Amino acid sequence: MLMAAEFVLLCYYAILYINLDLWTISKGTERFIIFRIYEVFFIPLLFLLYFNLLPLLKKLFSQFGFTVLFIGILLSVELWMVEWKVIIYKNWHAWQSVITSLFLIILLRALLKGYQLLGEKFR
């Protein structure tokens, strides 16, 4: 799961700041290193924690609340990066990050279910 999350998230960030040029990453060495740590370690580990804790919640309402909390954490960390001038938005808004975070959760959840189905099929 971590490898899939890593791949999807690296592609997501690369599309935003390389292909679409919606973000700019700070040119300073320290800030660039902070972004790489954020991109490669911190966010994939948050997603891994989310997907490990989600099955522990049995009620749909508590899963929804946990998902809202998770998206809030992702958004607040991203906004800290914007505040610290590590990420500079160009034609991008925080609400778009919320929508893409929700899309990424759905995509990674579908990948996880697919891996689980494949694992059950080949047992």
Shape: globular
Number of strands: 2
How many distinct domains? 1
Q: For the terminal residues, how far apart are their CA atoms?
A: 18 Å
Enumerate the strands of the largest sheet in spatial order, edge to edge or round the barrel. Answer: 1-2
What's the total helix number?
A: 4
**Secondary-structure element sequence?**
HEHHEH
Q: Mind summarizing the main beta sheet?
A: 2 strands, antiparallel
Helix percent band: over 70%
**Structural class estimated from helices and strands:** mainly alpha
Roughly what fraction of the amino acids lie in strands? under 5%
Radius of gyration: 16 Å
Low-confidence stretches: none
- Determine the mean pLDDT: 91
Describe the structure.
The protein is mainly alpha-helical and 123 residues long. It has one domain (2-121). It has 4 helices and 2 strands, in the order αβααβα. The chain has a two-stranded antiparallel ribbon. The longest helix has 28 residues, at 94-121. It is globular and about 50 Å long.
